[in-house]
Design goal:
about 850 residues; alpha+beta; six-stranded mixed sheet; six-stranded antiparallel sheet; about 15% strand; DNA-binding
DNA sequence: TAACTGGGCGCC
DNA sequence: AGGGCGCCCAGTTA
């Protein structure tokens, strides 16, 4: 018997916010069905608490749809997974989530065109030629309209706003968190018979009988891969049409409820409802306040399904299917890590905050006292303020022949008398600093770290100017650190732990002064293969001396952390790929003189041959803060794609880049190959991973300048950065699969591009770090095994953290050392 | 008031 | 013409 066609459906949720960990929940679930219909379900939201009034039967119906689908398509599956998990959990149900049947258009969008926009609207334009933006615009209008009425009529409602504890990610733009509001306001309006509060319906058909006005076609920019907007699932142009198959549809339910509300209000039993009022209720049901969200959401799920149809075909046509299937593991790993969360030490944070506040105050007093005569009364918490600029560089102003003085000539005339006879003047400040550079966009004098360093290096010791600049630097550092701490505090939640008190039900109790954060990880957040992190960003936690915020993060009581980082992976990749013999030898024989495995030392020897001849590997120490440090700076600048001038400046050696390129011609040739490929095809590919697809790598689009050329530094950088991150993604997948087998107490909690952090139960005994050593060895070897598949040896360095992320003890495996016993290990 | 831009800075 | 991010504050504009 022929197998029935696959049941491929899409799923999308609308939520009361994006902060799932702080109470945001889904209130609208929509399925896109293969025939172009929807099934959806909408729950009320309690406007005073923002709690979703879910229905258990609906949840079971949703689970049934998920269970019976052969493939479930999402735009960002991770988000809907968290959203549904939240509501199922509150309902006391366990969500069964079929990661193996999930398809994700967000991942597909990145794989097909890494530097294009991957939001649903943009991709529908690019791949379907359909614009669904109008639904969002309509929703925005309606939400803002309802919010206005609600603020006035229902002041006790909890509308979204920056600063509410349940939405720490909220910035200024929050209307999307209130997409439940129009319907809630509509119900309240009906209940109070205040139909006059409903704004006039916009001209056009009521949304429930949706016309074909969604079919207009916007022409997006042409894809380099063909003309996807001309192609639909069946080969013809796909139109996104939403019809309402009301399988789970609750309009009848809503209608009944609204009548009930109205009847209660009228004090009747329901049989004496005036026709007029019934008409009002019916009309209200067709009003955008009741339909805008539903139209928006249902269009999204249908569009997602249609989009997937095109993307799936393109992925297969372009030979990217194997890579895609592997990429599908990423949202799963990211979701598990996000759920695990990162633990933070509250008392540590408080201590640091107090210290920064003291130091900041001291610095501010210094600055203000030195520049009070120029009107400086306060310092900006970041960046520069006009007052600071004026105090540092003096004031530029204009004066009219009429005597009026003003800061900004605006249209070139005097604001008082309109005369155009104005003259420019310059008033020196007491400090009167000489600008060392200017900002890119406005050309104002820069007051950034580099400028401050420059001033500190040149201004006379003990001068007011120098004291001011030094104090400004200290103030900045304290404020920056404090701003980060504020963010962590805004996002963190009390850390709870199951408490075994002998009761049948496990309770949880808070761990005193410990908290947990759930940073969001986005595997498609960059133009390369790097992941991004946000809310808060866990990838930019300071390591700076005196401001090391990594002291805040670490293992909670009864736990320990292990970090594992790929050593020099971005230097190893080009060396091994190009097969640059001298570099390969250095990396493969880290114990051999004269370089002892140090890439930096090799380059040092190229740039400073006499110094190296004299000191050998000792050069590291002899020139620790000078020539050797500058060599490292230059090496990193080169990885990041620096051109001649910048690289030479970083190395402090004229012609350095040229010398290095000559010394390592194969790497130079690799760079040229990448550039040529990028110019020809627009993409560079990562090194193929034998465990995924030995023939091809992940294509990374290289941005072209206005003149249509690829910047020469970009291709090698993208290639290396993306290959490194592909290695990391693969390592994360393998590690998480292993961790799953060990159980939920063994967690991966952080990823910082080439570093992973694991959170384990604390070991016991006189040397507690030995307890988990077998597992750590296993993870290290799993990570290193990923290098085999790209032909680059990728040793992983491991550190043990018993107190905090900032304090690590290197674990040195002595395996392989000539004079060591096998399987010996020590912590230094 | 809401939303945006610019400057600045943390990480790899 | 130095790659990739996210986030804060100050200041301006709609």
């Amino acid at each position: 018997m022929p197998r029935a066609s696959k049941n491929v459906i899409s799923l999308d949720t609308e939520t009361t916010g994006i902060d799932h960990w702080h109470g945001a929940e889904p209130f609208f679930i929509t399925f896109g069905l293969p025939d172009g219909n929807n099934e959806f379900c909408e729950w009320e939201v309690d406007p005073k608490t923002r709690r979703v009034l879910f229905d258990l039967d609906d949840l079971r119906a949703i689970q049934a749809r998920i269970d019976e689908a052969d493939e479930l398509v999402f735009q960002n599956a991770k988000f809907d997974f968290h959203a549904l998990t939240t509501i199922f959990r509150r309902a006391g149900l366990e969500l069964r989530w079929p990661w193996e049947r999930v398809r994700d258009t967000l991942l597909a969008g990145h794989l097909l065109a890494s530097n294009h926009s991957h939001d649903l609207t943009s991709m529908c334009v690019e791949y379907l030629g359909v614009n669904i933006q109008k639904h969002e615009n309509r929703l925005e209008r309606v939400v803002k309209e309802a919010a206005k009425v609600a603020r006035r009529e229902f002041p006790s409602w909890r509308l979204a706003a920056k600063g509410l504890p349940e939405m720490p990610s909220a910035k200024e733009k929050v209307w999307k968190y209130d997409s439940w509001l129009p319907r809630a306001a509509g119900r309240a309006v009906v209940a109070s018979l205040r139909f006059d509060l409903l704004p006039d319906e916009p001209v056009g058909l009521p949304a429930v009988v949706r016309a074909a006005d969604d079919h207009d076609v916007s022409i997006g920019r042409p894809s380099k891969w063909g003309n996807p907007w001309k192609v639909g699932r069946d080969g013809s142009r796909r139109e996104v049409v939403t019809k309402y198959a009301e399988t789970i549809l609750n309009t009848p339910r809503l209608l009944a409820e609204l009548h009930e509300l109205r009847d209660k209000r009228l004090g009747c039993a329901g049989n004496c409802a005036p026709d007029l009022c019934h008409g009002h209720v019916l009309r209200a049901l067709c009003h955008p306040w009741f339909t805008a969200l539903r139209d928006y959401a249902n269009a999204d799920s249908v569009a997602t399904l249609a989009l997937w149809g095109v993307q799936e075909r393109l992925l297969k046509e372009r030979g990217l299917w194997a890579i895609y299937l592997r990429c599908l593991k990423k949202p799963w790993v990211a979701a598990v890590m996000e759920r695990n969360g990162v633990t933070a030490n509250g008392s540590q944070l408080t201590r640091m905050r107090e210290q920064f506040a003291r130091e900041a105050e001291e610095a501010k007093v210094t600055c203000v006292s030195l520049a009070a005569c120029d009107g400086l009364t306060d310092l900006p918490k970041s960046g520069v303020s006009n007052a600071l600029k004026r105090a540092m560089f003096g004031r530029r102003f204009w004066r009219c022949t009429c005597g009026q003085e003003f800061d900004d000539p605006a249209d070139g005339s005097c604001p008082l008398c309109d005369s155009r006879v104005i003259s420019s003047h310059y008033e020196r400040s007491r400090l009167d600093l000489e600008p060392v550079s200017h900002t890119e966009k406005s050309g104002a004098p820069a007051v950034d770290k580099a400028a401050i360093e420059r001033w500190l290096a040149t201004l006379p010791e003990g001068s007011d100017q120098r004291r001011f600049v030094a104090a400004l630097r200290d103030w900045r550092k304290c404020c920056t650190a404090t701003n980060y701490l504020d963010g962590y505090e805004r996002f963190w939640l009390p850390l709870n732990r199951p408490c075994d008190d002998g009761a049948v039900m496990t309770r949880t109790v808070p761990v005193p002064s410990w908290f947990i954060l759930h940073p969001s990880l986005n595997p498609t957040g960059t133009d390369t293969l790097r992941w991004s992190s946000s809310n808060p960003n866990a990838q930019n936690v300071s390591k700076q001396e005196g401001f090391g915020l990594r002291f805040v993060f670490g293992p909670a009581p009864g736990r320990e952390w292990w970090s594992a980082d790929a050593q020099n992976i971005e230097l190893r990749i080009p060396a091994f790929e190009a097969n640059e013999p001298d570099l390969v030898r250095v990396f493969e024989h880290p114990d051999e003189p004269p370089y002892f495995g140090s890439y930096h030392l090799v380059v040092f020897a190229v740039l400073h041959p006499e110094k190296f001849a004299k000191h050998g590997a000792e050069s590291k120490r002899v020139y620790e803060s000078t020539w050797y440090q500058w060599t490292k700076n230059g090496n990193f600048a080169l990885i990041y794609g620096a051109q001649d001038v910048t690289a030479d400046a970083a190395y402090h050696v004229p012609g350095a880049r040229e010398m290095i390129w000559r010394r390592f011609p194969r790497i130079a040739a690799l760079s040229d190959r990448m550039l040529a490929a990028a110019e020809r095809t627009g993409v560079v590919e990562t090194i193929p991973d034998r465990s995924v697809d030995s023939k091809r790598g992940y294509p990374i689009l290289c941005t072209r300048s206005e003149r249509g050329r690829v910047l020469p530094t970009v291709p090698l950088n993208y290639h290396v950065q993306s290959t490194a991150m592909q290695w990391m993604s693969e390592a994360m997948i393998r590690c998480q699969e292993q961790l799953d087998r060990w159980g939920s107490e063994f967690k991966m909690v952080l990823q910082v591009h080439d570093e992973l952090v694991f959170d384990f139960p604390r070991g016991r005994g006189p040397e507690p770090w030995r307890t988990n050593l077998p597992k750590i060895r296993r993870l290290k070897s799993l990570m290193e095994s990923c290098g085999d598949d790209i032909g680059v040896p990728t040793p992983v360095a491991v550190e043990y953290h018993s107190e905090s992320w900032a304090e690590g003890k290197a674990w040195t495996s002595t395996v392989g050392r000539a004079n060591a016993r096998r399987n010996d290990a020590e912590i230094v």
